[in-house]
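Blackboard transcription, Thursday session:
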Amino acid sequence: MRLDAAALHDMVARILARAGLSAENAAVVARVVVAAEQDGTASHGLFRLPGYLATLRSGWVDGHAVPTVTQVAPTLLLADGCNGFAQVALAAARDRLSEMARAQGMAALCTSNAHHFAALWPDVEPFARAGFVALTVINTRSHIVVFGGRRKVLGTNPMAFACPRGDGPPLVWDQAASVRSQGEVLRARRAGRAVPPGVGVDAAGQPTEDPGAILDGGALLPFGGHKGAGIALMIEVLAAALTGGRFGFEDRSAAYPGAQTSNAGQFVLLIDPSRTAGTGFSARIETLVAALREAGSERLPADARHSRRLAARDGIEIADSVHAELLAMLQAHQ
Amino acid sequence: MRLDAAALHDMVARILARAGLSAENAAVVARVVVAAEQDGTASHGLFRLPGYLATLRSGWVDGHAVPTVTQVAPTLLLADGCNGFAQVALAAARDRLSEMARAQGMAALCTSNAHHFAALWPDVEPFARAGFVALTVINTRSHIVVFGGRRKVLGTNPMAFACPRGDGPPLVWDQAASVRSQGEVLRARRAGRAVPPGVGVDAAGQPTEDPGAILDGGALLPFGGHKGAGIALMIEVLAAALTGGRFGFEDRSAAYPGAQTSNAGQFVLLIDPSRTAGTGFSARIETLVAALREAGSERLPADARHSRRLAARDGIEIADSVHAELLAMLQAHQ
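(Written on the board underneath:)
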């Protein structure tokens, strides 16, 4: 069946509100869940709802958090997520962050004490639509082994980047520092599928294609070996140390059975390219995109998502079984 | 034989000055060449001198460039490298950039029309010693094929990151967006060694372990597949589009036989962590480093370089053949 985005948003927001989110927070979180589903980012769409609900039930996240946002320097906003979802802190800081970046040329938001359980691209794409070059990173619970270590320390630590183009939607990418995201491995386990070689190791540090062995005591591997590890390390510094937040290995979610998120941090950087490159910036990005297409890169980052978004203009396709699950989630919390 | 760093610097600066660099510019470039040699970054040390000389002889770089630095926003410096080396522009901007970052919380330098032929970590490590979190990226000539393309478009586009630690030298890494840097492949060709599988493709797009086939019409591959490609793409945006500089595929060095550099751009970002994380920032980095060591990561990024630097306190070990080559270079330009 097909549901239009507004109807799906309403349904997801009601599910989240009944599970313990304030109406305001439910609306913010529902937006990113629906955006991922609409763009076909299956691992971060409706698939994540049971994780949100289990986490809320566990008492690990404060669904009614009202984040505080403080300007600590002309370019820096410091947000305390107050143990709520990171998107709520970003929503609270968004307008001020944009104004600061316009006035100063750059601005950054440093959020700590917040949970991020969604795709990361929805956090930056709107800034690129507003003309900014935007970069964000978050740290997560420990998931990957790096630099010859025996135990996981760093998170899957995703990064998302976006910049405006001359026409069409912004150039956007969003990628975990692991070969595959935790969400993808979770989906493989749920579907009873193996993961490709090189994705992770088991509890003994041996390569495995069994998602369960990776998730239960094993670890994910960084993309590109020590280079992906370098990226993951930088993100741990920016998202946790710089924001005053927790490192992934300091996570305490294990004390809350059912919790699937980490209380961690997020760093969001905005740059106003009109200050350095004038009005021609987005035309230059078009030149870059054209060169890549001409060299045979038919599918650039976000191309697939944007096509699916177009295809979902008249409604987001939802399997009947998923719709039934959504209805069950609504019932369960009534 | 062993030469002390000052003596080697003097020798390298004289070679560069005789090859066409102004005394000021020669001193700046010699510093990064010697720093790489001292830290054992062989592919970016004295090994690069013939490339500098060939490039200067070709007329492609202006050895007497006096870069201009303009503040275009409270946080943004725009530098025109005036077709000289990028390190000269950075040296001209360094003090002002630091002052701006202290005052505003963040600051960035956007350099265009400049050549970068050195290791990248020497550009950020001093800022980390001064207490900043520092990130820099440069774009290079087209070297890698990405996103299913048939021809190379993006550069090897290195990135370097540094942040202060509680004690000891800063945490620093420096890595190309390709599996191996162009410099490493050049060295393999010079040494008659094959490169590992996965490093590059030949002119027909087929995997090859022959460095010559990669360098002559072939291409390098990004680290970690499409994720490294995403990093390379972001760097092309930050270093070229944002700075008003040239993309790698717009390089015109082919018109200057012998030229080995690209006229491209550099982006340098400084963040003052004391504004967001207070005085405890470097202690937090120590906590992160300790966690990695405890998990078995005996060798973190820059550890090997820093040990070699310590070992070179009483002199940098130079093979007799290399010393003879240096003397020959001095003679050739007298």
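Lecturer's comment: Chain A has a mean pLDDT of 95.
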